[in-house]
Amino acid sequence: MVNLVLNENMKIYRRLRTWILIGLMIAFVLFVNIMNWHFDGKSAQGKGWRTELQKEITQWNEVLKQPKLDKQTKKYYQQQIAINEYHLEQNIRSTEGTLWDGVNGSAGMMIVITIFTIIIVGDSVAGEFSSGTIKLLLIRPASRTKILVSKYISLLLFGILLLLTLFVVSVVINGILFGFGHMDLPLIKATAEGQVVESNMLLNLWKTYMLNSVSTVMYVSMAFMISSAFRSSAMAIGLSIVSLFAGNIVMQALQRFDWSKYLLFANTDLTQYLSGLPFQEGMTLSFSITVLIVYFTLFNLISWLIFTRRDVAS
Amino acid sequence: MNTEPVISLIGVTKRIGRTNIIDDLTFDVPQGEIFGFLGPNGAGKTTTIRMIVGLMSITKGQILIKGKNIKTEFEQAIRHVGAIVESPEMYKYLSGYQNLVHYARMVPGVTKDRIDEVVSLVKLENRIHDKVKKYSLGMRQRLGVAQALLHRPSLLILDEPTNGLDPAGIRELRDYLRNLTRTEGITVVVSSHLLSEMELMCDRVAIIQRGKLVNVMPIQHFTQGDDQDQTYLIQAQPSEQALETIKNMDGVRRVNLVEDEKIEVTTDREQIPDILIGLMQNQVRIYGVQLVCQTLEDRFLEITEGGQIG
Lengths: 314, 310
Known about the structure:
By secondary structure, chain A is mainly alpha-helical.
């Protein structure tokens, strides 16, 4: 099994294509962070953070004076003000103008990881069929199940590699731009009860990474299924990326239907429970996890059934 | 000596839709034999080979390799098999060596030394670290042979192995296969539509047409017919008198004048001396007697009735 994964890794990393994607990933992270620093972060560096926070508090107080504010929004702004006041009272600077601003912002680029992983996934099974190498691969003393699992593992490893690349590159570039001085800055956040607490910034970052990875794993499983069912790389990559982008738009249109909460796209984003604003009222974290597990099992079961049963005829 | 057949097919049937692509195929191949699998295009050669190596499922019947069922004991059965299924498709973006490492990792016990050994066996030492996309067709074919032999299989399966090889390459492959069966006792199952090739290569051939086994026989029987039914070419003069004489003799199945002075006689082997004595007694002058070997091609066309695709 270890040997099979080594084989799959060799087939991923001995291709120029893979390194172009990793290179692009690095380039994107650098570009976005340098732009962010250039246009936004530079001004907040140094002592500027106090006036920034003060300005925000005044702004939000204005918003709160509006009469027609709904409960949710009101609560949100009150929390934000409380957080800012905590910063000022405790003399803990905000992330604005430190490396954390860029690093946390870069977590939003996980969608790039999803797309790049899908590209490699889509070709993983289908590519073996279109090149004909599948014939020599399946006539070895390794069952089709083992081969499929080793492919899946190697693809997840590729996703993890991209995630580590994102983390390291964003920390290094933001450290260089903003200085490494505020590495130990705590995260100030409000709990659901409205209490302001300090927590670990790094831990929070990885929590965000992990929650976003759930959606990556779902799309990877989906692309993997299409790749082994239709044996077409283009179809697997195309369909998965389209659904990645169209998913949210379609969900907005379907939001009013009760059954739409059972759809995959309503549940892939688990950060909706961090912000306390789920897709439909009454949805809970455990509901979403259950739905995701069902889809995950379904996708991989279909991949497995098709891959292990089908005749290799072409 | 192990008398168990290396591979046996028992009533193997493959149904796609409502038609039986392969219908009730049964045969054994003993150790050390080169077994030819012959048939017109579309007869089911490739399908049969794909069922043997587990690429296609078997609808009915079973295939045993060294006694292991390919369906239920796949890993133990396929361990003994090395194969080239049609043209050997390798990972073009990897080097020849990396391709071999890839396959070596999939079978326990293939060492680095074995890889080097196989590489020198197929004479690819100088180019083995080049990317496969830079290889010529002949080199790819040789790399294909290398990957098939890597794990010292007892059974080598070749589907149309001479496709795309030049005459020198074909000859090389043939000598090489012969050598393997003699020195290592490897059993070879080879499919081809190149009849002349099979004639030179195989010990025994099976003819398959429209998914059915038409005939299995040793290659000598195939080309010479049996002792009771052999054709001779007799050169004699005067030919009219010779023709008359032979026609009146016992045991002659067929006789005709092919061209001036040449008479074709189909008869028992035992009858030939009598025919010659008879001719001489009738003052016919004999210049030559020759056994006519049918080529595999003639027999093949005869058996498959012109070889229509089913």
